[in-house]
Amino acid sequence: MVVKNVVVIGAGVAGLTTALLLSERSGYRITVAAKHMPGDYDIEYASPWAGANYMPVSRRGTLAAEWDKKTWTRLLDLATNHPESGVHLQDCEIYSRAKDDGSASAEWFSELLAPNPWFKDVVPHFRTLSTDTLDHSVNSATVFTSVCINTAIYLPWLVSQCLKNGVVFRRADFKHVLEASSQEIQSGSSVDLIVNCTGLMASRLGGVEDKSVVPARGQIVVVRNDAGKMVNISGTDDGDDEVCYVMTRAAGGGTILGGSYQKGNWDSQVDPNLAIRIMKRAVKLCPSLTGGKGIEHLDIIRHGVGLRPVREGGTRVEKERIGDTWVVHNYGAGGAGYQSSFGCAELAVDLIEEALGVEAKL
User: Fold this and answer.
1) How many of the other CB atoms lie within 10 Å of CB of 252?
2) 116-134: string of b/e by CB count within 10 Å (b at 16+)?
3) In a domain, 362, yes or no
4) Would residue 36 count as lying in a domain?
5) Considering its fold, how many domains does the chain have in total?
6) Among 269, 354, 30, 315, which Cα is nearest to 167's?
7) Residue 217 belongs to some domain of the structure
8) 361 occurs within a structural domain
């Protein structure tokens, strides 16, 4: 068997998942080359900052919904059979207010807020709550069992699974996508294909420079208080680019309070006023955080800012010939990076095999 040399650029959830799935197939020598690796915290590196969870916002009948559906199967297996991955099951409550209709957040969450979303037959225990049980400001609500991911455990776990399958990891900071075909990257071997999983940096990477990829700034507060569940609501009273959600990570990872969705904003610094609003909204939405008391009873671990890699038109998973080299792209998932990760990676791996199969016949 002729072994094909593949370099994956990027070690976020997209790059690591793609490398893992490719390493499960025979005939590949895989190197993950990235500027940032799990354990790093940098504004260019979105994956460590994510919540992360499974709350689908993809529209019914779209390719994105198929990616989410395929990913649920894998995440459920990890939560059920591989607790060492940092993925656990958690009840999820979704609240909708009529006064948020037409807002940016309600538009973003429209499928998640729907009374009959496509994923109701995918996730366990989906049901609609009686309006008699809801706060007067809430018009409808749904509940289902989902997963929450401790990214500080999950990203290194993905690395460990890749290493077990023989994947090599190297630090590299490429200015152009084709620099990944350098023989130094794979110790003198010629590179047959490059996988571009550079997230937000796809907007600046030479040979790609996809200007349709923009940041959607998310600010969070991580606390020691245990909410015991995940909660999300259709909007806030503090502006279109602010949202409210709560999720407790697996294995003592703390509870994430969010947040914001500030498109086009590259600011890496924490806004203290926004942090106060985030905490006030979270305590009001989820009184179990503090036993019904105020934000002074939140035990703060840290504040954080991450930039979701949002691509206008959706995630780009496709193959392209750049110069003499095949490149398979998998980037731009925005806030759906984890919940679509396996579905996107499966397609990327299929495209890798398709591209190399075509190349082999030339």
Assistant:
1) 11
2) ebbbeebbeebeeeeeeee
3) no
4) yes
5) 1
6) 30
7) yes
8) no
Tokens of 79: 């939560």
Contact between 54 and 144 under an 8 Å Cβ cutoff? The reply is no
| 131 assigned to a ligand binding site | no
d(Cα 115, Cα 62) in Å, to the nearest integer?
A: 18
The reply to whether 60 sits in an annotated binding site is: no
308 annotated as ligand-binding: yes
Averaged over successive runs of 10 residues, the pLDDT of the chain (362 residues) comes to: 94 98 97 98 97 96 98 98 98 97 92 96 97 92 98 98 98 97 77 97 98 98 96 96 97 97 97 98 96 97 98 97 97 98 98 80 36
Say how far residue 278 (Cα) sits from the centre of its chain: 20
Q: What angle do CA 175, 181, 183 make, to 5 degrees?
A: 115
Full residue range of the structural domain in which residue 78 is found: 4-356
In degrees and rounded to multiples of 5, residue 291 shows phi and psi of: 65, 30
Contacts of 88 (CB under 8 A, 6+ apart): 79, 147, 148, 150, 250, 251
Is 335 annotated as a binding-site member?
yes
pTM of the model: 0.96
CA distances for 277 relative to 238, 239, 261, 292, angstroms: 8, 11, 14, 17
Q: Which tokens sit at 38?
A: 């799990």
- Residue identified by tokens 């990890």 is 78
Q: Are 73 and 81 a contacting pair, CB within 8 Å?
A: no
We report the CATH number of the domain holding residue 101 as 3.30.9.10
